[in-house]
Amino acid sequence: MKVIFRFQDVVEILNNGVSELETNATEVQKTAYKDQRKKDGKTLFLIHQCVNSDVFEKIIEEETAKGAWEKLKNLYGGDEKLKKVKLQTLMKQYEMLQMKEDESIDAYFSRIVTLTNQKKACGESVTDLQKIEKVLRSLTLDFDYIVVTIEESKTLSKMKLEELQVSLEAHEMRLKQRNSEREKVAEQALQSRFSKKAGKEKSKQRKNLASDEVKQEH
After folding, report:
1. What is the extent of the structural domain holding 61?
2. Which residues of 178-194 are buried (b: 16+ CB within 10 A; e: fewer)?
3. Interval 4-30 mean pLDDT
């Protein structure tokens, strides 16, 4: 978690908090105070993002980043324990991760990569092979055929995650084209049925009209 704080340049706010604003503060001091308050809010938001819902409930009443951080240290004894808590949450999320029915391959891969990067930040690396195996067992049913093909024809241990993504996106494109063609055929069939029905209705109307004219003549 400290890596994130250093990257966001908020360590000073985390450790020292926001300085009190004096009554007769200058414009420069007021501007600096405003910037500190903004950084404090940003840091508190980062802390909220790095903990699970159970931990969040324990720090929700803290209004400053320093206050929330001190409470976390008192509860869990430092950054290493916080990493373990976060990692447990991430591992559970990773195990439950599944591709959504309306989700694209690109979007799903982004979720996989984001989650594995978060795990890495907490001390657990995920190899390309592990990511590939995770993807292959968590895709939607539309990809069953290509998954079997990849597993039978590729050596997964030598495969790159990017290579898998390219293969799946190509299959995804073919699926979209196929579905588009089916929709066109269905639409044409519907229009044909409608035209036939409309034709029959017109023919019936003409017959009825002719019958009425004959009756009027007699």
Report:
1. 1-96
2. eeeeeeeeeeeeeeeee
3. 83
